[in-house]
Structure formats: C-alpha cells, structure tokens
Amino acid sequence: MQICFKKSSGWTQPYEAIIDTGAPLSIIPPAIWQEIEKEILAEEHKIRGIVSKKDSYLSVKIANISCVLMDEKSVSEEVKIKAYLSLETKAPLVLGLENIISMARLYINLKDNEGYIEL
What we know:
The protein has 119 residues and is mainly β. The chain has one domain: Acid Proteases (Cathepsin D, subunit A, domain 1). The protein contains 1 helix and 11 strands. It has one helix spanning 30-33; strands spanning 2-7, 10-11, 15-16, 18-19, 27-28, 39-47, 58-70, 79-86, 94-95, 105-109, 114-118. The model has no long low-confidence stretch (mean pLDDT 88).
C-alpha cells in the first residue's frame, strides 16, 4: 500500500508503507514528516514496544496529519490521523490500527498469501 501526506503546496510523493495490524500506532520517519503539514499535539514523547528494557524506546512527536491511501486502482478520500513522528532517522513508515486500519475493512487470505484494505 502507498500513502501520500498533505503538504502546504499539495501532496507528497507516494511512499510504500508497512501495514502492521498488530501495531496501534502509525510511525512516520523524519525524512517524510518534516515536509508535511502537521498539528503538533506533544513535542517529545517516548513510546515502547514489547521490549521491557528501560532504554528501549523511540522518541517521537505526536501530531494530527492528513493523508490519502492508494493502490494501483484507487485513491482514498483524505483521512485525518494521529501519527507518531519519529525523531530517529532509521524508523520505518508504519501504518497501525489507530485511525487508519480501524476505519477500514482488512481482508487477509493466508492460504493464497494475499490481502488488502478497503476504505
């Protein structure tokens, strides 16, 4: 799946995103979020995964952003989501359940190794 983010002068190029149905959060790396429109909700926040080490966390800003999802055939309407803007340059672009996947239908066919999201 690809995603474009709203900028002050239109939209970003399409980016390939990891769709993580087990993650509640959407994470955007700095190379992407620095150029997009955003409403900052929290300047610095630390998020943790399942790792229990005290020093295992990702520093992020929390923001509301706008995006569109697309595939070869269609483009969604504009969607406003809460996103976690990574301060770590190596962070991947991840779409989690909160605000994106939770408002869509997710189809998974493990037998045929295929799946898709329907908004």
